[in-house]
Description:
Blueprint: H1 2-20, H2 24-28, E1 32-36, E2 40-44, E3 46-52, E4 56-61, E5 64-78, E6 82-94
Antiparallel strand pairs: 1-2, 2-6, 3-4, 4-5, 5-6
Protein name: YabP/YqfC family sporulation protein
Pfam families: YabP (PF07873)
Amino acid sequence: MKREGKDEDMLLRSRIAGAAEVPRELLLSLPVLTATGRQEIRVENYRGIQEYTQELIRINTRSGQIRLTGKRLSIEYYTNTEMKITGLINSIEYK
C-alpha cells in the first residue's frame, strides 16, 4: 500500500514536469548518470554512499540504489549533489 502511494506521487510529479516543461530529473530528484566509456561515470542527485571499495560502490538515491562494480574504482570527488567515479567499470545495477 505504501509503495502504491509513492508510485502515484511520482506519476503526478512526472505529469506536472511535462506540463511545466521542467526536466523530470530536476522535479523528481531522479539520479542522472553520465558515463564516459567504462572509465568514468558522473552521478547527480544522489543521497549517500552506502558502500565503497575498489570493486564495489553502492549509492543511495531517491528512487533506490545504484550498484557499480569493477576494478580500481575510486570516487574522484563528491559534492552534495554530484560525484565522479573512475576505474574500470564492469556493471551498473539499479536496485
